[in-house]
Specification:
The chain has 191 residues and is of the alpha+beta class. The chain has a single domain, classed as Trna Endonuclease, Chain: A, domain 1 (3-Layer(aba) Sandwich), CATH 3.40.1350.10. Helices cover 27% and strands 31% of the residues. The chain is built from 5 helices and 12 strands. The strands form 4 sheets. The protein has a 6-stranded mixed β-sheet with strand order 3-6-7-9-10-12, with helices on both faces. A hairpin with a 4-residue loop joins strand 9 and strand 10. The N and C termini lie far apart (44 Å).
């Protein structure tokens, strides 16, 4: 308990780290993947969203601007690549909710894609950041599917992430070190 000069008392028993507020999960993952590539640890990229360009404002080559475009097909997941001979494929989601991740944020075609990855012995997962708590979790697709198949809920409670998810360590150099989670599950024989 801290007593401030204006006689306002504040309880700091639960310290929340706000140091990375404003940094999006996608930015952190892109920096992490760049680091993994630079140190030759893994080759993982963000997948481009397939679009068809309809109109371009083309005054000059250096100032060309797409003014109209549409999505060709629904994208699959956000990231894919290879790590130690293993194919990784994952979706990244960020929520400001304190209580849950809305399942509608994960689209049916993305779930179907992750099932296909699992069927072909790849490693599929989602990475979810609860920005309010500044916590990022890795959830393997098989655990996600078990949750979806066992409930009629429209969201995944934060408490479920605390119980079933794996908290991803954060460091200055490696923003979202999800490969450390993959490593621990390879060694533990869980993958």
């Amino acid at each position: 308990m801290i007593n401030y000069p204006n006689r306002k008392s504040v309880n700091h028993s639960k310290v929340i780290n706000y140091s990375r507020r404003g940094m999006s999960l996608e930015e952190d993952l892109n920096l992490t993947n760049k680091y993994y590539l630079e140190v030759d640890r893994a080759v993982i990229y963000k997948k481009p969203t397939p679009i068809t360009i309809v109109d371009v404002d083309y005054k000059s080559r250096s100032t060309a601007k797409i003014t109209e475009a549409y999505f060709q097909t629904p994208s699959t997941t956000d990231y894919n690549g290879i790590y130690q001979g293993l194919y990784l494929d994952f979706e990244a989601k960020e929520t400001s909710s304190k209580t849950s991740l809305v399942l509608a944020m994960i689209h049916p075609h993305q779930l179907e894609h992750m099932k296909k990855i699992l069927n072909h012995k790849g490693i599929a997962f989602i990475i979810v950041r609860f920005s309010y708590y500044d916590e990022t979790y890795l959830i393997f697709a098989k655990d996600l599917f078990e949750f979806i198949n066992s409930t009629k809920r429209k969201s995944i409670p934060y408490s479920w992430f605390k119980e079933k998810g794996i908290l991803i360590p954060y460091s200055y150099q490696i923003k979202v070190d999800y490969l450390s989670v993959i490593d621990s599950h390879i060694v533990g024989g869980k993958i």
